[in-house]
Amino acid sequence: MRYFCYNEQGDDDENVVVTMSEDEIREEYYPYWYEKMCNKFGKQKVDETYCFEDCLDDWLVVHWAWESR
User: Fold this and answer.
1) Where are the domains of the chain?
2) Residue 69 confidence (pLDDT) above 90
């Protein structure tokens, strides 16, 4: 199981590092990402061309995230 971290502003403007598992990202972000990709390219194209790793790459960029080692 892979884990990924990103910075988030917490209470009192403190910087908090949030860690999410690959499964949590799949559960929380993938449905949103998949819907947006289908709206843009069509369901058939998305199903033939893209996978969860593409979604994960997008999530990493959107959140300025890094893999926890």
Assistant:
1) 3-67
2) no
Q: Is residue 11 scored above 90 in pLDDT?
A: no
What's the Cα-to-Cα distance from 40 to each of 7, 37, 45, rounded to whole Å? 29, 5, 10
Sequential DSSP letters for 28-40:
HTHHHHHHHHHHH
**Helix 30-41 and helix 52-63, axial crossing angle in degrees, nearest 10:** 110
Tokens representing 45? 């194209």
Return the structure tokens found at 62: 């959107």
Query: How far from the centroid of its chain's Cα atoms is residue 24's Cα?
Result: 9
Count each helix (H run) and each strand (E run) in the chain, helices first: 4, 3
